[in-house]
Amino acid sequence: MTASAYTLLADEALTLDERRTTYSPAAVAIEGDSISYVGPPTRETSGTVIRLDGCVLLPGLIDAHTHTPMWLFRGLTEDVPRGEWLPRRMRPLEALVGPRELRAGALAGCLELMTNGVTTIADRYNDMGEVAGAIEESGLRAVVAHSLYDRDAERGLRETEALLERFGADPARSRVWAGLGPHATDTCGPDLLRRVAALAERSGGRVFIHLAQAEAEVAAVRARGSAGCAAYLDELGLLGPTVVVAHGTYLTDGEADLVGGRGTAVAHCPSSNAKIEGRVAPVGRMRRAGAVVGLGTDAACCNNGMDLFAEMRTAGLVNKVAADDPAAFPAEVLLRMATTEAAAALGIAHLVGSLETGKRADVIAVDRRVPHLLPWHDPVANIVYAARPSDVSAVFVDGRPLVLDRRPVGLDAERILADGTQAARALAPLAVGG
To answer: Which residue range forms the structural domain that includes residue 52?
Structure first.
């Protein structure tokens, strides 16, 4: 099925527009790639009518930070001591796979995200020229970036420029578009980051970088003479609204204020931070200082899932504990961190993130008739704290159905999972008990 005309009829719609408009019952009309009507059902319908009885319609969820190829590594990095996850566990695993395996893992990861109700991702990894083809094939909306390191800066910059040439940097012109992905503040020195800033300025591409995600990173940056990881980026002109920093797990209070004060976008990955570092990033402080915060799943090997419903719930729980305040991070804030605020973080709030006439038709339907979502007293709280990926019954991106009746449309899920599993067999020597 391709983008055409549809009318979606459901029991309810949470538009997440600025007025918090809801409709019950609800209709969303789709013409081509855009929403042409949101409101109560009318006698006039256009195109194919899809009845979603018992469902609530929502804007598609937006994953502000993920690495789809790392689907291959799920279950291989469990309970690792702090500081060992990346150098001692991930790097040996990554050496065992090549571009073909990464592409297979990426497509499987996209399939998982899609069926979990995610419609937009910010994805960055190695060999993104190959991986981006899988993401494009999946039907998801995505900004893609090749990971840049000092160790192979020239090759990485060529890969980045090739992605920019292939996809452009304008999300309004292409469902898949390109950004710039310096890996982190310890693996990218000043020269490389200055070149990244210059290329971002020329191309209009957003910059995506890990920030203060580990103690060793902080130590390496301070050894260069900077006060901290955020100060280092700020000195190079790489804090601000067109930069998306991930994690920020080891930011000091002053650095959190700096990140927020610059209006920087932040990708908060609460379950990854908890599992790998045993910490909660200071996102509450960053938001209060002015940062735009979206939720990210990180990779399937960081927390064993690619589930934004779980991230909303986890973000609420761990940040209430961190704030010592059960009223912190209300349910609506958490839902917006996976929709409207995540869209703003990626610079696409004019296109997606809410159900409004003229925006792109990225819509999901969640079946609210299951036992764990009843009674339906508070739709927002139920979505944030009780909904599961298995409740997602339909997914549309750019007006094209990607999931109907909980089954992928247009993708051979059995083949994709078989290919991904086959690609992961190269990792058997490092598997537990292997």
So the answer is: 5-59+355-408
